[in-house]
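Hey,

Quick one before I head out. I ran the complex with S-adenosylmethionine overnight. Inputs first:
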Amino acid sequence: MQVHLAEHLPKNERIRLGSYYTPERLVKQVHEFIMPYLENKKIKSIVFDSAGGCGAFIFGLENYDYRIADCDLEACKFLKQHFNQHNIFHANSLKGVNRDKYLIPSFAFLIMVGNPPYNDTTSEFKNGKKGQNICDDDLYDRDMGISFLKSYYKLNADVVCVLHPLSYLIKETNFKRLRDFKDNYKLIKGAIFSSALFHGTGTGKFPILVSLYEKCLDGMTFDYIKNFRFNILDSPKTFVLSDFRTTDGYINKYPPRKNDIQKSPIGLYYYSFRDFNSLKKNTSFMTKEHPNGIVVTLDNFYKYSYLYALKNLFNPDDAWLYGNLSPLINIEDVQQNKKLYVLYTIKTHKVFREMEGLKKIADYYKVKLNGTDDVSKIEKAIKDGLNKLIKYETKGMKGVESLQPVEC
Ligand SMILES: C[S@@+](CC[C@H](N)C(=O)[O-])C[C@H]1O[C@@H](n2cnc3c(N)ncnc32)[C@H](O)[C@@H]1O
């Protein structure tokens, strides 16, 4: 059994337990983040990985006081051969959570590390392989990773330095689900990387965070996260959520609710999307009513034309980074270039080849149906605009002070 591969488990078990062991580069980043606390001689610190797998995060830290727990018996057998067996616990770390269970004194400075499982219904689990989250009532969440974060608060950890999806923080609905954790901990440092760094985690790439939190009476607000400057691992770039404008509040992304108009007056629908990844993956315009169809009208047609252009023409290398944000947009650009997006859509999407209401749309937006516009020129003009959607600042530029630990 290797420390960085869960090869002893069949695929379904690997999925159920979220056993994707962590590559060394990421373990190293966690070690770097926690070293200042570990080396503080004034406090008795204990490092604990409560989803320890084969101990990737504790290798190299054996000279410090540590604990490792895991519910996988085989992994625990391996751990007992390579670490002090009194420090290994074969347990469900989300059940009966308290320090005594792991012989951690109440006065010890507790540093949680690791890469707890993240089991989201959007992942491979939706194929019916999803495991149950058996945990203390107050820790329950449909995503085990969020339950793990809550368990660190229950253990009264002083520092938490773990890997978790960036979406736990940057999607406000997820952020709220962190409850006591967000109210009692503050993000101090964060380095983002692509899920592609893990083997066998599926095709949809998403951003994961190496996070460092300190216990803090004030906790953190969503505003704090919005303005937090994240590093991008092994890159000079940084990422600040508030730098990105998304379609939220400007373009509706949901099918009509019970009391909304169900039928499009121009016989046109757009397939609903949750974020940029699903916009890319799903189909776009449809002429038939559909349970996932958003109603398109003459008035909002240009907005869905924009989304259609974004879906086809915006293919940056680091799309994984904002894949689970709502689609990016520059509203002024879209307002000023309605005709461009409309023309691109009606000239390239097959539903407009013989659509009845097409003339109405063309008249409304004052575009010529039989004009001699060159599609490649239209595409180029749109691409030039879309490429300006991404703006990064590199390290060392303004705002980077937020990477310094804060006094709590
Ligand atoms: C993503 S792996 C991480 C393993 C190791 N820390 C690493 O990074 O290489 C997640 C681990 O959590 C364990 N696990 C899942 N649910 C658990 C639970 N409720 N209690 C304890 N361990 C759990 C799995 O068995 C797996 O070893």
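Confidence is low (pLDDT under 50) at residues 121-129, 398-408.

Talk tomorrow,
K.
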